[in-house]
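look at this record:
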Amino acid sequence: MTGWARLRDFGRRLVFGALVTCAAVLGACGGGGGAQFASGGIVGTGDASIISVGTISAFGTGTIIVNGASFATGSATVRVNGEAATVAALRIGMVVTVQGGARQSDGSVVANTIDYRPEIQGIVGGVDSAAQLFTVLGQRVHTDRLTVFDGGTFATLLNQYVEVSGFRSSPGEMLATRVEIRPSVVAGAPLEVTGIVALLDPAAKTFYIGAQLVDYAQTPSAFVPPGLVNGAVARAKGTVIGAGDRLVATEIGLVASTLPAPESAQVEIEGLITHYAGLASFRVSGQTVDGRGATFEGGSAAALVDGVKVEVEGRLTQGVVVATRIEIEAEAATVVIDGLAEAVDVATGSVTVSGQRVTTTSGTQFEDRSTAALRDFGLAAIVVGDRLSISATNGAGGLVAKRIERLDRSTPPDSAPDASAEGLISGFVSVAEFYVGAQKVNASSATFFEGTSGNLANGRRVEVEGVLSGSVLLATKVTFKSEDDSTPTGSIEVEGTISSFASVSSFVVAGQKVDASSASFSGGTAGNLADGVRINVKGVLNGGVVIATSVEIESPSTATTIEVEGLISGFVSVANFTVSGQRIDASTATIKNGTAADLANGRDCTVQGTVVGGVLQATVVELEDAPELEGAKVEGTITNFVSTSNFKVAGRTVDASSASFAHGTAADLANGKEVKVEGSLVGIVLTASKVEFDD
């Protein structure tokens, strides 16, 4: 498989296939009035000796790293969403355009301008959990292990307002590099989508971007560019979704077809190949490239096809980047290591975790998600004993890190909730806004037990689990409790690492103020409380502070866990085979989508477990190429309804003809209905075993 297309689709990696390029017709995007924008933050003009378009992978002292190059930011003009901003507004995973000038003695380039603009801003309407993709404003947004989530997790996406940065591919499809989740949205929040114009109706003043209908009848003529035609790449902005799920546009802009750089400027550009017509003509992030004179890294010219992720260096000549170097970026990380750092070698650019030596590159993404939250986190900041989560590829020279995160030592897996609250609902406004005790809750993305979202009301007792985003608990699970439950009103449970520790009576856990002066302790004593210590607190909210009744000090986990993906090779027995260069012993593992007898060379699988003596002792082996994959799940709004056996949720075709139904019947299936569907994937169709309505 090639390119970013190797994504997990219902437990297996999804080959996106030959991508239809939105860049194929970018030449039609010029001319006329109206706002002019460009993809990935290309919004500026002006002279520069170098221009770089790509993802921010790390920060240094007074620098940002884009496409492996260091840019000094001290004198840079920064724009975010078209508005003046500071470097502090920039984040890991944002796709930016940097225009620079002089190179400094340390090798960095002085950045003159840094521009960032998201591809999408809107409400998530559907989530395909197994495939790790979601839908927003008619676009299918794919994620992978390098996608940065801020303000929540993939599990909390449904019905949340998000800002997405990334690379566009085919019409209505993109790969997200960063997803910012906002727990609450005020009326009039911007809605914005970029993509290829289709089905333009000048009389009705409508067109489509992907599956999103855009209505520009109310757009002032001064904000409608005359170059708006089918095939043009446009950015539609508005604040309202009108009848028929149409985006009521207040502004339409055309995406520029070339980089805002002078003739002969040096160019570095990252993105997905589209409209590949041969080595002499293809596009990367909408920019035409001529690769005939380029040298190649990470592969050869034969690997260039639509959907492959590349980094191109060259010179801009008459609107075309004449490439001198093309790096074919490795496929999505196939090895994930979670453990403690045993050795750090800055000179060789490597770190060792439980005997696994991993090499870093100039393009390795670094992010500090520990309590320290060091912005300019990098290899030099890692010390022995740090908890690291590393996403890597396994090449001829060993493991190469694509992303390194520093975590608190006892941070639970992403699937585990880090906060919970139990008590009576008050201040109910909607499923997205109510209180449990003094804790504000947004349950738009939650799964409900012993009831539905329609049962939420003031006075109902619930237990809520989820993730804290600021002061809001983004719920992943809501359980209705019986009315005679003796749990005191306003009780709350918070789990996380301590920060802002002042005393036993004043510290913060997962954003929640805590007073533990009267608490009982287990797993340690009050003397063990300090910044960075992970604890579980139970108590009662009083004036916004948890008055703790019990505090459990959790022992840090030191076991190294590894997950590898790929094809089985070197198969000798269930206890001896290899995946992605890692030796596996699956003799005691649970086998999903098959049995141990199905393990053989060439089978595609994902393996999870711990490393002992260099061998991955598998706990789970999931076959990804089985004809029927169990445990598939989608959530969201029904679209394209034809019949009980043919409709879509989150862009996934569903057959519910043999399903059981909760809170409704098959007769209730219709476009616009909110449902959760569980079942198995047969080919590309989700054969539902259960459909639950959530209206």
